[in-house]
Here is the input.
Amino acid sequence: MKHYIGPANPMHAQFDALASYQAQHFAYAFEGGVATLTLNRPERKNPLTFASYAELRDLFRALNYATDVKAVVLTGSGGNFCSGGDVHEIIGPLTQMSMPELLEFTRMTGDLIKAMRACPQPIVAAIDGICAGAGAMMALAADLRLGTAQAKTAFLFTRVGLAGADMGACALLPRLIGQGRASELLFTGRAMSAEEGLQWGFFNALHAPDALLDAAHKLAHQLASGPTFAHGMTKTMLHQEWAMTLDQAIEAEAQAQAICMQTQDFTRAYEAFAAKQKPVFQGD
Here is the structure.
């Protein structure tokens, strides 16, 4: 869950601010509580490298301590989201690595997904064009996905001789679109069309390409202006309750809601309702 650490709190200096973060392997922008991460190798359809994997992992981990970031937009440049791991900079070198080295790599890629799921901020993925391999997994790890009619999402691991079980695909995808549909995509590696993605629940909405990023930012700013502590609690519960029985989930939610009822945002919402005004949430 997201804890607000205000400037007057003596622990404030321990929490990194990411408003001025300088990315090395992708573009980063910050405005109004929303951080925008843009994969920007458009000439290659925005593939990932060893370095960009690691930087993305570390940034999403750091978001646990970023009191200024309330929501995240993840997108790609040049009409594509992400084509997965770079064939020449990743796939080629992997064929020359030992088993311990390969395991370090696969654990690193999985750590990126774990970091995305563990950061308290809602992540909105804006997906146009190619969304494949590790790119599809990053989209899957987001909390909300907006796409275009041109979006083509492929978990194409079997196309390169690997298992469809990669970066948590066999856990995340069936929960989102169902076991049968996930099995088809993971076994065949075929691309899921945007319309299929919308019908199956992968996409929350489709937009025209020139309206996609604006729609993603509008949604992210809406989330950023909401009760961000409560949003973090919601994300935590959505993740943790996969491994709970119904009785355990109900008890966990009872405790979570009782905690949220002690926040100032809960009081602000009540007072605004009583005054027939719109609440102004501050995340504490």
